[in-house]
User: Fold this.
Amino acid sequence: LPTLAQAKTMAMILDQPHKILCCQCAVVIEPNAVNMCVNCLQERYDIGAGVSKQVQQNTCRGCNRFERRDGSWAEVDMESKELLALLLKKPRGLTQVRLIDASYVWTEPHSRRIKLKLTVQQEVVAGAVLQQSFVVEYVLGNKQCGTCQRREAKDTWVAVCQVRQKVEHKRTFFWIEQLILKHRAHTDAINIVERRDGLDFFYEARSHAEKMTAFLQGVAPTRYKTSKQLISTDTHTGKGRYKFTYSVELLPICRGDALWLPASTAATVGQVPRFMLCNKVSNIVHLIDPKTMRTAELLPLTFWKKQFASALTRSCLAEFVVLD
Assistant:
């Protein structure tokens, strides 16, 4: 029988992993499918050879947008996740390997270069997966997008959304402006012009104006009208070119206004007193009775059937100091 020391020695030998020599450089390695070390595998198989290491990326100076691979343009921030996703679709051959990791490499801001460090994997032979890291350089070039081209040609807009509120103090309109900025509803506009009673949003597509109109209807009490003007027509095909106008009017009631409701409107709202205060403005007008604190809701359709003006506005308020 073996002694205790011999038994411990045999157990240690059995616990050690089996080692072999690399078939190329004779380095001691653990067994794998090709019996080669990592260095020899990388020398023999270059999985990143089919990936473009230098790519041309176009940007627009007018709007600072980046061109996608399909020719469209995207507004993204530098070193953002959205820009990273856009750039990863550019290099040729990247779809032939498995992308593991991607990160930005710092470059000089004025160098007009963006560098990405990519880590990819690929199965070189049966059961052997090789991983490799390399840097892809993007050269930023200047190219004018279609929107800026039409803007320079003075033939920019196809549809316009005219937003108006005809009141002395435009508290509701200012609130609408903040909502537009918060939800970035103005991103599709190619130009915004200030008018006497509101703003004009110009768009290069009719759907963008319809989207803005739907947004305003969802956040404020409005009504709108549409019209179109024939610009040119093709006598051979019968197709014409139109410019569309969406006129959106905000309900002329602001928060804090004192209202004297018509008798029919007070009955329609819910048999409320005719004297009410505007407590809140959303896609409907919220009213409150200052005596009983009873609330009611005024729908835009009800207001436009029987229009009325505010009895007192915020400018009529007087400040009082209460002394003990």
